[in-house]
Amino acid sequence: DGGITQSPKYLFRKEGQNVTLSCEQNLNHDAMYWYRQDPGQGLRLIYYSQIVNDFQKGDIAEGYSVSREKKESFPLTVTSAQKNPTAFYLCASSISGFGETQYFGPGTRLLVL
Amino acid sequence: GESVGLHLPTLSVQEGDNSIINCAYSNSASDYFIWYKQESGKGPQFIIDIRSNMDKRQGQRVTVLLNKTVKHLSLQIAATQPGDSAVYFCAEIATGGYNKLIFGAGTRLAVHP
Description:
The structure holds two protein chains of two kinds. Chain A has no helices and eleven strands. Chain A is mainly β. In chain A, β9 (87-94) and β10 (103-104) form a beta hairpin. Chain A is globular and about 35 Å long. In chain A, 38% of the residues are buried. Chain B is mainly β. In chain B, strands 2, 4, 5, 9, 10 and 11 form a six-stranded mixed β-sheet that branches. Chain B is globular and about 45 Å long. The termini of chain B are far apart. The interface between A and B is medium-sized, with 21 and 24 residues.
C-alpha cells in the first residue's frame, strides 16, 4: 500500500521533555509538511521541506524542530520550549511543492501529562 | 490577512438529501482550491480539487463549483449518506510562487437517518 504513516497514534509528554513524532511516506513525493490542528481551528503550518536536506519554518515553528535526511522521512520534534504542545499533529506530502495537492497521514495526538 | 472561511459551522441533513457546503476566499490571486474530508480522529482525506480556469468539476457523488466573481467555492454531495458525516474544509493557494496552502476551520456535516 502506498501512503503516509505517522506514529505513534497517541503520545504523552512530560514537562521539560522532548518528544519526536514520526512521519514516513512511500509515495516518492519530494515535499513534506507538518501541521498542527487545534479544535475549531484550521491547520497551521509548522515546518515544510521541499527537498531532502532542506526545510523551512512555517507559521508556528517556535518550539519545534525537524530533519529531512531521507526523502521518505520527516520527523518532528516537539521541544520543551513549546509551552502548549497539546494538539493533533498532521504530516502531509505532495509531489513537488505547494502548488500540488497535499495528502495527509492519520495524525498523532500529543497530550501533556 | 488573506484567509479562507466557511459560511456555516454545522450542517445537518437527512440521509438521501443533497448537501451543499460553502467556502469564501479572500485572495483574488488564489488559483487552486482543494476540498478535504476529515473524520473524527483521522487525517484529512482529499476529495476533489479545482483550478481557477474551471467553474465546475465533478467526481463521484461530489461536485465543486467555483465562482471567481464573488470568490466563492462550494462542495455539493449528492444523495448524502451516513458515511459522509465529517468535517469538510477547503484550502486555497496562489500557485506559481512560494505561497502556502491556507485552510479554513471547517464545516461539520451531520447526516441523520
